[in-house]
Write a structure and sequence with these properties.
eight-stranded mixed sheet, seven-stranded mixed sheet, alpha/beta, 18 helices, 2 domains, Rossmann fold, elongated, 494 residues, Nucleotidyltransferase, domain 5, 19 strands
Length: 494
């Protein structure tokens, strides 16, 4: 929304100019329209006029830049249609500047510019938009998208057009994308020392425009009860939605999981620690985790592999390729649906994994109980394992450590655990969308729900003297060869 005061620019056919009034932009919307960095985020509190700003920015850009290619994303199609397709079609009708194709979801302007509308459906969307090129990408309600989705969509900013490529985001605190949006635009924490320079993030590429409902006087005039409604929300939600406080929400379903407590730099795993694997499998993604268990029963995730589009034979081969010969894997845990039979072979997927060198055991089926087991393992437990203690400077080992630990180079599962949200219909369970972040979490759940025993501490070998060995050898020889000392029963035996 914006202040509807002054007439807007004249836009339309040269022979039939139609006056279209987008309204007078408030100061924060003007900053959004004029920003020149590659990534521009506009948000904070709810009601700041973000969605209206996206529509105006996209429509004006299409009218004033012949041939520009624009795409607008929302997470779901109903939200996309209500917030963008229908309003922009009305703009096109009022101005006569463009026509809409409902089949291709494309608004085509007479000057050759286009606005396409897209919604995000995980893997299917990755395949659909892979390789496409746009000058402007709009991500409305960006915190509803995972960081993986953001990076893939940012990859569409390319092409031969001389127009500078930009991505425009709107956002409020909370949601699956809370952490990455907060990192990039609020905390401004960037990767700047990557071993691969191409992975570095340039702080100059990121602009954040903070807005509150007070910036949108037009909405407050027409919705006088809006602030009162926000005041009735729980305190943490109210602070986020009313004041744009990014510190009150976030953390997702596994709020217990923190980098500074649950993540540690990789170290050499002792030979006596028992090792396990767990995985989640589908053609959309094969996600496998490797685990080591210390003598306290603490589980350390030390390796991860993810790859999509693998048939069972290739998934099993990938699993074996990443399991060195010196590692003895005690058990591989897999989800219950691996025991359903395939139509093609009549065999279960579990049988096919075993045939290809990966025997598996079924993990418990109950999702909620499995996720609760993960939460339980994330709680601190006494630290007694001498090897783990030795990883700290002398005298600085903590008294407790979580029962679930991860090596810091397992970036995917760490990020997914931090991003996944609670299911809106069942707060005790994890959300199943966006689906692309559920695979590694399901792999971790398969292990945690199965519960394994602590590794036994290695037995200390007793020092033995040569005389003891001779006596023992003599005793053992006589006992073995002669049956020991003769007895009355032995002499009188028939």
């Amino acid at each position: 929304m914006s202040n509807q005061k002054n007439q807007g620019p004249e836009i339309g056919k040269d022979s039939n100019i139609v006056r279209w009034n987008p309204g007078e932009a408030n100061p924060k919307q003007l900053q959004f329209y004029r920003a020149t960095s590659m990534f521009v985020a506009y948000g904070g509190a709810k009601g700041g006029g973000k969605t209206h700003a996206v529509r105006v920015k996209a429509f004006l850009s299409a009218c004033l830049n012949p041939g520009i290619r624009i795409i607008i994303f929302r997470q779901t199609y109903p939200a996309l249609e209500e917030n963008h397709i229908l309003p922009l079609r009305r703009m096109a009708t009022q101005t006569g500047a463009a026509t809409y194709n409902g089949t291709t979801k494309l608004l085509t302007f007479e000057n050759g510019s286009t606005i396409r509308f897209g919604h995000w459906a995980g893997k299917d969307s990755e395949d659909e938009y892979n390789g496409q090129e746009y000058d402007y990408v709009f991500l409305d309600e960006a915190t509803q998208f995972s960081e993986r989705a953001f990076n893939i969509l940012a990859g569409m900013l390319r092409g031969a057009s001389p127009i500078p490529k930009q991505m425009f985001l709107t956002c409020n605190p909370g949601g699956v994308g809370h952490n990455w949006v907060k990192r990039l635009f609020i905390d401004r924490e960037y990767k700047t020392n990557c071993s691969n320079p191409e992975e570095n993030e340039n702080p100059d590429d990121y602009t954040f425009i903070f807005a509150t409902v007070e910036d949108n006087t037009h909405m407050l005039e027409h919705s006088p009860n809006y602030l009162r409604n926000l005041a009735q929300l729980p305190e943490d939600v109210r602070k986020a939605y009313r004041y744009g406080d990014w510190s009150t929400l976030g953390g997702g379903y596994f709020k217990e999981f923190k980098n500074h407590t649950h993540v540690m730099a990789p170290f050499r795993i002792p030979d006596h620690w028992k090792r396990y694997r767990s995985f989640d499998y589908g053609l959309d993604m094969f996600a496998c985790l490797w685990w080591a268990v210390d003598t306290d029963g603490r589980a350390w995730a030390y390796r991860e592999v993810e790859e999509k589009g693998l048939i069972i034979q290739k998934a099993a081969a990938l699993c074996m390729q990443n399991s060195p010969a010196h590692e003895k894997i005690e058990i591989t845990f897999a989800p219950w649906d691996m025991w359903s039979r395939t139509k093609e072979s009549g065999k279960t997927m579990a049988e096919q994994f075993q045939t290809n060198g990966v025997p598996i055991i079924q993990s418990p089926r109950d999702r909620v109980q499995g996720h609760m087991a993960m939460k339980s393992m994330m709680a601190p437990m006494p630290l007694n394992d001498p090897y783990v203690k030795s990883l700290f400077p002398e005298g600085q080992a903590p008294a407790t450590m979580p029962g679930l630990m991860m090596f810091s180079d397992l970036e995917r599962v760490i990020k997914d655990i931090q991003e996944i949200q609670a299911d809106e219909k069942n707060p005790n369970d994890c959300a199943k969308e966006p689906h692309e972040i559920t695979h590694s979490v399901d792999a971790a759940r398969a292990y945690c729900a199965s519960r394994v025993l602590p590794t036994e501490a290695p037995q200390e070998k007793k020092r033995r003297f040569f005389e003891d060995l001779l006596d023992e050898k003599e005793e053992n020889y006589e006992t073995y060869m002669c049956g020991g000392e003769p007895s009355e029963g032995y002499i009188g035996a028939a």
